[in-house]
Amino acid sequence: MAPEIVFSRLAKLPAGSVVLDPMSGSGTVLRAAAELGHDCTGCDLDPLAVLMARVWTTPINTKTLYKRADELVETARSTSAAQLPWINGCSETKDFVE
Q: How many CA atoms lie within 13 A of 69 on its CB side?
C-alpha cells in the first residue's frame, strides 16, 4: 500500500482508534497506526508477509541493541585468530577493517 494513503487516512482518526488490517502484507498500515498511538491488529495468509510485518512492527529497545552490538564488537576483536590473506595482503582493506 502506498504510504501516503495510509498516513493521510490514519491522521484523520481520533487518538487511540482501533485499526484492523485484514490483508496487512508487510505491515505498513500496522506500523503507521502504532506510531500514531492507535491499537492495531492485522493478519495475512502469506508467511513471508507475516514475517515482514512482525519485523517491521516489533519495538526495539535501543539500550539493549547497543549493549548487544558492543558485545558483538568485543567478541569479534578478541577472536582475531583467523588468517585472511586477502585482508592482511591489502593495506587499504586492513585499514578499513580496523
A: 6
Mean pLDDT of 78-95: 75
Helical packing angle, 47-57 and 28-35, nearest 10°: 20
Cβ atoms of 49 and 29 closer than 8 Å: no
Give residue-wise pLDDT tens across range 17-66: 999 999 999 999 999 999 999 999 999 999 999 999 999 899 889 999 99
pLDDT > 80? residue 88: no
Of 45, 41, 53, the closest CA to residue 17 belongs to 41
Q: Closest Cα partner for 21 from 7, 12, 8, 31?
A: 31
Between CA 93 and CA 15 the distance in angstroms is 52
Element (H, E) at 52: helix 47-57
> The cell 487516512 sits on which residue?
9
Which pTM value belongs to this model? 0.61
Cell of 81: 585468530
